[in-house]
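Appendix B. One record, verbatim.
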Amino acid sequence: MSKPRIFSGMRPTGRLHLGNLLGALDNWVKLQDEYECVFAVVDWHALTTGYEDTGEIRENTMNLVIDYLSAGIDPEKSLIIKQSDVKQHAELSLLLSMITPLSWLERCPTYKEQLRELEGKDIMTHGFLGYPVLMAADILVYKAQVVPVGEDQLPHLELTREIARRFNFLYEPVFPEPKERLNEVVLLPGTDGRKMSKSYRNIIEMSASADEVKNIVANMVTDPKRIRRRDPGDPHVCSVYAFHKVFSKPSLDEIQKECKSAGIGCVECKRKLADALNEYLEPIRARREAIERNPGIVHEVLEQGARKARIIAEATLEEVRQAMRI
């Protein structure tokens, strides 16, 4: 490999929002010239908590690929794949599951956290307990040396390293131990001040039109103590200002000063934010519109990615089978 390889992916659970764009995709775009990148739509992972209702997985997969492309992921530089198109992910996951102690999976922090968050949902399945092994296979089948992650995903990556070490010890050295590449953190709350989440209905989708952005911003939560136009505001308790800190950096000091002195009203402040957001999203919209005029490009990108990914993954599986004498 001329460059170190990266693997990362997202589940097709719906359209991506600005939090996904700033927290992951923008970072991925920057990595394309430095690394050999494999970016996946991990559709099998969507089944771990959503196996009962699979009606939207295919549509969500196509939309997710469009989000990848519109954000600037370049299929000439990176492989974009659908996990289920590369069956070697499943074979390696099965083989790694044979050597992964049950206690390693049961102690996984996100496993316990999701059991609490999804209480009442029937997720006591083999697939849900074992999804970190599938995640490890996703990474190791490409011998990825680097994985871009948020801090909350570090336990998963450490488990991947433990599984790689155990395999290399039991059989023969095949897998590198992937290192983390922490994403640049951009703190962006939801439009109501809470964590941005689809379940809270407080997101701004990457695919939102200019008018949709204006309407969403117009309804954002501002300083609750600022009742009248002449009342001074506190920008630090205002969701609109939290967005300004990300999207309006050149004029941030002025916005803060005018808010505190009541030199600007919330309506005008929101209008400024909508303009800044639409300016930021304009090149993304332009790429999306070009893709939507030629929808066949999504299938072409996935076919091309899968074809190249299978070659890499099968070479790894040949080493694994030889090491395991099967």
